[in-house]
Design a protein that fits this description.
This protein is an alpha+beta fold. The protein has 6 helices and 9 strands; from the N terminus they run H-E-E-E-E-H-E-H-E-H-H-E-E-E-H. The chain has a 4-stranded antiparallel β-sheet, with helices on one face. It comes from Bombiscardovia coagulans.
Length: about 300
């Protein structure tokens, strides 16, 4: 007897109904996906409130020898038009510097792309070509400029192609390592410097801050209190050394401004007390002529008695 083609679909629906909280949460049959090794996926529309566009997925296995269908798994999966939450962002990427206290420590991953190995000495830098090797030395890049570069000399008939690379002097390498403090275990990569420059430039000490707009064109680049920093970051930033500036001791963009530029003249010093005219003139005496009193008989009688008593 041929098998009913709706039998596996009905079995899958019964599985979805057993998982759903209410029968009304399982909608119409949508599609069947034939997977490998006799496994098929049956999908039904979800009618759960808040799960618009989601699908009930039931996976069945068909044993051809016994002609039996068994349940593998069932789940609720998002469809193409499903309402989904925002993409998950790891907590470490969601934190802001203001979220950390002085006792918190983030730590540094061993494979942090912002860092690379530093230089310990000129010998370990492997500058130049080995005397026993015919290969050209690799191009070595210093983090803040082209220092460890292969130098191409002028063409000479006596020079072979293997001699076309001039070794950088070991003392020059040591000088550069010391000047840029490259002897640390790790130093910034180009990616680390770019991310730092972007963060500083777009921050409150960059050209878009409110203080820059009110600085009347007096930027840090021409300020005497700006301390230059080395390396490629020094082409965009410096350190403020003005004790009266709100940016004192902070890295500022060269086109930033704070209003405390070194070329701004101080305001004129005025008197501490401005004497105003008195509201009343207490130095002048006004003589007021008194009108003669009225003659009252009772008053005169009292005065006469007082005079007689004296």
């Amino acid at each position: 007897m041929p098998q009913n083609r709706h039998e596996p679909e009905d079995a899958a629906r019964q599985v979805a109904l057993s998982v759903a909280s209410e029968p009304e949460e399982v909608g119409e049959f949508l599609r069947q996906h034939q997977l490998e090794d006799g496994v098929s996926e049956f999908q039904f529309a979800s009618k759960i409130k808040g799960y618009e566009g989601w699908l009930w997925s039931v996976t069945l296995y068909h044993d051809k020898d016994s002609d039996q269908w068994t349940v593998d798994e069932s789940s609720l999966i998002p469809g193409p038009d499903a309402l989904l939450p925002p993409p998950w962002i790891p907590w470490k990427d969601r934190l802001l510097p203001s979220d950390l206290s002085v006792t918190d420590a983030m730590g540094t991953e061993p494979d942090d792309p912002r860092l690379e190995d530093g230089w310990s000495s000129a010998e370990e830098a492997q500058v130049g070509k080995s005397e026993h090797s015919t290969e050209q030395p690799p191009l070595l890049e210093q983090q803040d400029g082209a220092v460890f570069k292969r130098i191409q000399p002028e063409a000479s008939s006596k020079q072979s192609s293997s001699d076309s690379w001039i070794h950088t002097a070991a003392e020059d390498v040591d000088s550069v390592v010391q000047e840029f403090a490259l002897s640390r275990r790790h130093v910034l990569t180009a990616q680390g410097r770019d991310a730092t420059a972007k963060r500083w430039y777009e921050g409150q000490h960059g050209p878009k801050s409110l203080s820059t707009r009110t600085a009347a064109g007096n930027t840090c680049e021409t300020c005497g209190f700006m301390v230059a920093i080395q390396g490629s970051l020094g082409t965009m930033f410096g350190v403020c050394a003005n004790r009266w500036s709100p940016d004192d001791g902070r890295v500022v963009a060269l086109d930033h401004g704070c209003g405390e530029h070194s070329e701004i003249e101080p305001p004129e010093i005025g008197r501490l007390w401005e004497q105003s005219k008195p509201a009343f003139d207490d130095l002048r005496i006004d003589v007021v002529h008194q009108a003669p009193r009225e003659e009252i008989s009772a008053v005169e009688l009292i005065e006469e008695i007082n005079n007689e008593g004296e």
